[in-house]
Amino acid sequence: MCGIVGYIGPREAYPIIIEGLKRLEYRGYDSAGIALFDGTDLKVSKTKGKVVDLENRSEKEITKNGNVGIGHTRWATHGVPNDVNSHPHVSNSGELVIIHNGIIENYDSLKQELISRGYTFQSDTDTEVLINLIEDVKKQQNVKLGKAVQIALNQVIGAYAIAVFDKNKPEEVVVARLGSPLAIGIGENEDEFFIASDASPFLEYTKNAVYLEDEEMAVIRFHKGIKIRKIKDDSLVDTYVQKLQINLEQIEKGGFDHFMLKEIHEQPKAITDTYRGRLLRNEAIIKMAGVEDNMKKFLNANRIIIVACGTSWHAGLVAEYIFEDLARIPVEVEYASEFRYRNPVINENDVVIAISQSGETADTLAAIKLAKSKGAFVFGVCNVVGSSIARESDAGAYTHAGPEIGVASTKAFTTQITVLTLIALRLARAKGTISSSDFRQHLLELEMIPKKVEKALKSDANIKTIANVYKGVSNFLYLGRGYNFPVALEGALKLKEISYIHAEGYPAAEMKHGPIALIDENMPIVVIATKKGHYEKVVSNIQEIKSRKGKIIGIVTEGDTQVRALADHVIEVPETLESLSPLLTTIPLQLLSYHIAVMLDKNVDQPRNLAKSVTVE
Ligand code: AGP
Predict the structure, then answer these.
(1) N or C: which end of the chain has fewer CB within 10 A?
(2) d(CA 64, CA 96)
(3) Could you tell which of 613, 615, 616 is best to mutate to test the pocket of ligand 1, judged by most ligand atoms within 8 Å of the CB?
(4) What DSSP line would sit under 116-154, residue for residue?
(5) Euclidean distance between CA atoms 449 and 89, whole angstroms
(6) What digits encode the pLDDT tens for the residues 277-314?
(7) 606 vs 88 pLDDT, higher one
(8) Which residues are annotated as active site (predicted)?
(9) Least confident of 89-98, 156-165, 381-390
């Protein structure tokens, strides 16, 4: 879960790489490094800490000129975060240098082999083993760098996105990927090339991008272009250049203090962009090519298996409610990491929906590869265009949330629910399990959601006041019923991941089977108690909490009086259908966690120990 950046061309590489690393810091931020060829020699500077620490260090350590360079921001897997384990890593001869995102699983056996041949190692990393393996192949077999990389990678087990260059041949950079993302930006005049984990580091320079597929490598030569080959058999692959549709402004903060707050406020537009051209209320139809083209698969499916991780898994849980409720299709929601190793029963009559914002989450990617190998049809719901999961899926639908930079997922969650709701409604219509008046009402209500989200966002000041009351607690409980049980889980996750306060989400009725023991006057309990759904039952749950002096924060429908009379605080959201209520009830929970984290002076956009896309298992 690291970020890699590289440049070869006429410009100074240093500033491009440093700014690029800052854009990718959401991927990992425990150490950073850069390697440049300054015209005579290889210059490497690396340090524990953030990219700004690297800037300060490299200022003293290296000359910053040179037209070819590679840089890295790290999320440690092998070897603790320190200077020596930071990337780039240099081969024993000092000639070859590498940056790597991923994990080499058989690195120890390769290392022992190399040690037996006299190689020595400074760091504990798998990456240093790889660069010395490449060097050994290059020397032993007297081949060019590209060939040496290919041969070495065929001995490697694991995941990687790498960039390597040789100081004796600085006009050439070799890149390769398996499991970890790698994009190549091509300068307008094809006279310069940018290498990165995603397009954000080179968006301001070019919109022409090549996304390497799994098991592909490319040799990038200054003034000569790119040659892409299959790592397995060295066969040539056509270079497919995509024109990127996102712009720089989308990946800047736009006047907000944090990306997370910006992305929370972008949800009305993100939801609108996600149903635009798909929800056609006047014609009372839903049009989604990926669903239409595979309608038979969906309608003949024995069941739908949803695989995902984290917040995407919570969106999957909401989908379970709406698919079973409206389309009457049995759904199972699986943690991808468990599903992939549980030897699950899957067959060709199963439809697997994979949900992933980044489209790069290793466990979800592996889960869908497993499902495909057993004949299941895989439908991907991703936000990042051209991502691995999007390409691995048989068909899919993108959430049009735009780039999500904050590690804590917000607009991706609500746009995932929007896409899944559209699919469920379309299938319900096709199956005739929803009346046309109910169908129309759902289209109407869904179309009104963005305006209602804007209204919910207006409770920000009230939520900030509540956050100030509870910022000092060490535990929180979140309760919800039905469609809002997954929202309770999501609210707890948001608070945990950015404020580091322990929090648990529970089905409200489940409270009596244990968690109620935690409740006393020091325990704040967020209870989602909107009118539609199991309102009366939730009210009695609130009374049970109240009788144990728990502090109640009620998420209620505008104009609610009953819960207002019982709760210590209420946050109102506009009324909507129960099946659409998660799109509104999640908003105050996002803001509550955000304000508490800011008040606790936490790094909201880059919480400790986390990264935006988890590309290793
Ligand atoms: C959510 O805020 C977290 N960033 C994390 O749980 C995330 O949802 C999970 O890693 C899945 O990521 P994906 O949607 O990119 O696959």
Answers:
(1) C
(2) 19
(3) 613
(4) HTT---SSS-HHHHHHHHHHHHHHHHT--HHHHHHHHHT
(5) 50
(6) 999 999 999 999 999 999 999 999 999 999 999 999 99
(7) 88
(8) 2 (nucleophile), 612 (for fru-6p isomerization activity)
(9) 381-390
* Gap from CA of 498 to ligand 1 centroid (Å): 13
Ligand 1 mean position, distance from CA 372 (Å): 22
With a 6 A CB cut-off, is 311 part of the ligand 1 pocket? yes
- Indicate the pairing of strand 208-211 with strand 193-196: unpaired
Q: How far apart are CA 484 and CA 478, in angstroms?
A: 10
In this predicted structure, the answer to whether residue 140 has a pLDDT above a threshold of 80 is yes
- Ligand 1 within 6 A of 357 CB? yes
Helices marked H in 432-484 — which ranges?
436-457, 460-470
**Pairwise CA distance, residues 393 & 352, whole Å:** 9
Distance of alpha carbon 58 from alpha carbon 50, whole angstroms: 12
Q: What is the pLDDT of residues 479-495, one digit of tens each?
A: 999 999 999 999 999 99
User: What DSSP line would sit under 543-586, residue for residue?
Assistant: HHHHTTTPEEEEEEETT--HHHHH-SEEEEE----GGGTHHHHH
Q: How many other CB atoms are found less than 10 A from the CB of residue 544?
A: 14
User: At 42, is the secondary structure helix, strand, or coil?
Assistant: strand
Strand partners, 351: 304, 377
Atom of ligand 1 nearest to the CA of 409: 2
**What tokens were used for 387?**
């991502």
**What pLDDT, on the 0 to 100 scale, is given for residue 604?**
96
192/206 Cα distance (integer angstroms): 10
| CA–centroid distance for 316 within its chain | 15
CB of residue 407 inside a 6 A radius of ligand 1: yes
Beta carbon of 497 within 6 Å of any ligand 1 atom: yes
Q: Is 118 exposed, middle or buried (0-12, 13-18, 19+ CB in 10 A)?
A: exposed
Report long-range pairs for 201-208 (Cβ below 8 Å, ≥24 apart): 201/5, 201/16, 201/19, 201/20, 201/21, 201/23, 201/24, 202/16, 202/20, 203/244, 203/246, 203/247, 203/248, 203/251, 204/248, 205/16, 207/243, 207/244, 208/241, 208/242, 208/243, 208/244
**Residue 251 pLDDT greater than 80, yes or no:** no
Pocket test for ligand 1, best of 368, 609, 614, 615 (most atoms within 8 A of CB): 614
Beta strands 96-104; 89-90: pairing state? antiparallel
Phi first, then psi, for residue 345 (nearest 5°) are -85, 115
CB-CB contact of 573 with 557 (8 Å)? yes
Q: Among 361, 384, 388, 409, name the best residue to mutate to test ligand 1's pocket (greatest count of ligand atoms within 8 A of Cβ).
A: 409
Is the CB of 388 inside a 6 Å radius of any atom of ligand 1?
A: no
CA distance 480 to 76: 36
Q: Exposed, middle or buried: residue 249 (CB in 10 Å: 0-12, 13-18, 19+)? A: exposed
Residues in a beta bridge with 332 = 305
pTM: 0.78
